[in-house]
Each structure stands twice: as C-alpha cells, then as structure tokens.
Design goal:
CATH topology of the largest domain: Rossmann fold
Number of strands: 18
Shape: globular
Radius of gyration: 26 Å
Number of domains: 2
Distance between the termini: 64 Å
CATH superfamily of the largest domain: P-loop containing nucleotide triphosphate hydrolases
CATH architecture of the largest domain: 3-Layer(aba) Sandwich
Helix content: 10-25%
Strand order of the largest sheet: 5-6-7-3-8-9
Length: about 425
C-alpha cells in the first residue's frame, strides 16, 4: 500500500529489502566457512540461513506516523535496524531522507569509560549535529535527563535508570526529522516516563515522521494513522491502523485459542497472579469487585441477571492532570471480550486535592454468557495513552446461564412474526 504524495520525497523508501542471517552451530564452523572456497575443504555450507526479511517494499512519507506490529521474530527489529543503518541488507535497498533519532537499544553506543558529558558530545555528533548545534543543546539534554549531578562522572558508575535516561535525552533532543521507536515509548520511571512520552507526543503533533514498533496494539491504534503487520519477514497487511490492529488481534486470538489447552489451563489450582506495572506518577491503590452484593475477587454470577460493581481507588501526583481508568474483560486464553474507559465515555473523574480518587463502574444484568472471564484495570494519563499502572487478572468471573446459547454475549434483540395467515 503506497501513501505517496506528489511533490514530496519519501522519508523512508525500501525496495525489495531483504535480510538473511547466517547461523552457525559451532564457532569453528565460521572458520570452515571462511576457508570454504579452497579446494581442500570441498563445496560445503557450514551455516543455515535465517531470512528475517523477504523483499519488503515500503514507502513512508514525511509527517506520517506508522506503527509496526507482529510477533517476536517477525522481522520488526531487523527492519528498524536496516532503516537506521545499524545493519546492512542482504538484498534490496533502503533510502532515508532526513536526520534519524532511533530509540532502539538506548545507550548502546555509550563508552562506559567516558563521562556522561563526553558521551553526550560523541552521540550528538554521530547523530549529525555540528559543534554549534551541540553547544546550543547540551544543557537542554542534561536538564531533560535529570542526571546533572553526575554528568561529569564515567557512565560506568551510573545506575541503569540514569544510563537510559541520558541516552533517551540525547536521542529526543537532536531535533530529528525521523523518530524510530522500538518498544521504548516510556523509559525510566515516574515523572521521567511521563516526560519522555509527552516529548514524543509533541514530536508527533509537530509533524515529525515516526516509525513506532510496539506490542501494545492500543498504543499503535491510538498514536498511528497507519500500521504495518509483519509476519515471518513479510508484510501481511499495510493500511489504516484500526483495520490492521483488528486483523492482527484476530490472528493473535486464533493463536491463543490453538494453544489454550496446554498453556492456559495447565494448573487450575495455581494461585492467581496479578501483575503490576506502576510508573510512580500515579498508581492504583485498591480494586474491589462486588457481585450481587458480595465482596469477592472470585465471583459466581448469573448471565443476564447478576449485577457487578468494580470500585477502583488510585493515588496520583496532584500537579499532573487527573488520570483516566479503563477496564477490560477477557478469557483465560487472552482474548479480549470487551472494554470500557472513562475517556471514551467522556466521564470526568473527580479527585481530592492530595491527588487521590475513587471511581465505581457498574455492570447491570451482566450480559456475558457462560464461561470464565478475567478483569483487568488500567490507570492511564489524561489522554488515555500513557500507562501509569495496571492490575491484570485482578478478579475472576465465573458466569453460569440457564439456557443453551453459545458465544460470549447475549445481545439486545427482538423476534417478530411476519407470517401472513389466510383464513377461509
């Protein structure tokens, strides 16, 4: 699918772009392969080929925000590395017009013996800034990173968080024409995570070209107008983000269903796991589920009859805008059944001056049919994009029904009899 606009050169143009890796079973096989042309070794191949990309054709115009989705091993990172120039193609070519800032392996080019300031100077120069531009921006880079007290110390003395924050600050402050992000939308923790996210949003709103690779389909659909689905090194679908995300989610659901018997139900007696991912600027304080007036996180409910109430308490930084809350219901295999969110319903959350708040979500005459469902709760920023905290599989709903209907939902419906009966 091409998005060319007459009169503008593409920001990124890949033609028949391919990448093959040579995989050796033993280190000595590399030497054997090096000597392979000589007659005493014979005509043998000591490696197997792994094609990460197969003849990719891709055109991205200036100002486009494009998401890339796909399972691990689909070729996403390889494509980004080829665009950035950190890897060379086996076949085809890729042309890039403009300065690139890549958030791939943050800080991969840092020298641990150099100070933070020296690494900033070196990295900025590698990214294409001249001495005057570096001098104008170095203080801004240091301030954004929040490591000024340690900027003249060797980075080998930095914590991993300081290291990442400095690397991100360099990449985001070189005023790139093209920003490439590989699962690094939020780096560090707390206030810095939000600050980094806000800066990326500003770049998007300023018309920068952004190539965004993520497993978060919600963020891809929210941030990107266009999305590309890669599978086994080939483009499966390239189009409007909602369309691509929907198709890819269906593919993932099918994969989850195929492997559900062994993966999801391996041990029904195992204790429930509730993963948490707080970032510091805001966090969930308590999640309470009340089913038919009973406070429980393991609820037995009747389809079409029971009422479910979910109470959520949170604490946030009062200096930041009030956050949003979202809820998803999904099967144990991971298939999302439905979701709801305060920003979608244009519901304004009220919170106390100290940043704390409570909210209640009511689900009357619970519409799901028989089955076991899990509840996820998410705390997000005022835009409903940046994730502050989540409580995954926080509650289990065991739904029973009287009838024999199949599926997930009982939808509102009405039967009518249109038969015309003739009377003699």
């Amino acid at each position: 699918m091409s998005f060319n606009v007459s009169g503008y050169a593409p920001a990124i143009n890949a033609v028949k772009l391919s990448k093959c890796y040579q995989l050796y079973q033993h280190p000595k096989d590399r030497l054997k392969q090096f000597l392979w042309p000589h007659k005493w070794w014979g005509s043998r191949q000591y490696f197997r080929e792994l094609w990460a990309l197969h003849a990719i054709d891709l055109m991205i115009m200036p100002g486009e925000v494009v998401g890339i989705v796909g399972q691990n091993g689909s070729g996403k990172s390889t494509l980004l590395q080829l665009v950035c120039g950190t890897s060379t193609p086996t076949g085809g070519e890729v042309q890039v017009n403009g300065r690139i800032a890549a958030l791939l392996e943050l800080g991969a080019g840092f020298n641990p013996e150099f100070t933070g300031r020296e690494n900033v100077l070196m990295s900025a120069a590698i990214m294409g800034l001249n001495q005057s531009e570096i001098a104008d921006r170095i203080e801004q880079i240091i301030d954004f990173s929040g490591v000024r007290d340690f900027i003249d110390q060797p980075v080998k003395t930095y914590s991993s968080g300081m290291y990442v924050r400095l690397a991100f600050s360099v990449a985001i402050n070189v005023d790139p024409d093209i920003l490439i992000i590989d699962e690094a939308l939020s780096v560090g923790d707390g206030a810095f995570a939000r600050k980094s996210f806000t800066r990326i949003m500003q770049m998007r709103d300023a018309g920068k070209t952004i190539l965004f690779c993520s497993h978060s389909l919600f963020q891809v659909e929210s941030l990107c107008a266009r999305a590309i689905w890669l599978n086994k090194g080939r483009i499966v679908l390239d189009g409007e983000s909602a369309q691509v995300v929907s198709a890819y989610q269906s593919f993932l659901d099918q994969c989850a269903t195929d492997s559900a018997t062994e993966a999801a139900f391996a041990d029904k007696n195992a204790p429930a796991q509730h993963p948490r991912h707080p970032t510091g600027s805001a966090h969930l304080d308590k999640v309470q589920l009340i089913a038919d007036n009973t406070d429980t996180l393991q609820a037995d409910i009747a389809s079409g009859q029971s009422s479910v109430q979910i109470n959520v308490s949170f604490v946030s930084d009062p200096a930041l805008p009030c956050p949003n809350i979202a809820m998803t219901l999904h099967t144990k295999e991971g298939r999302v059944i439905t979701s709801t969110a305060t920003w979608e319903d244009q519901f304004a959350i009220q919170r106390a001056p100290d940043g704390s708040g409570q909210i209640c979500l009511r689900l009357e005459q619970f519409p799901l049919l028989k089955g076991e469902y899990l509840v996820n709760i998410y705390l997000l920023c005022e835009r409903g994009l940046h994730l502050y905290d989540s409580a995954e599989a926080i509650a289990t709903l065991q739904v029973k029904q009287a009838g024999r209907l199949q599926g997930y939902f009982s939808i509102p419906h009405q039967w009518e009899n249109n038969t015309i009966i003739q009377h003699d």
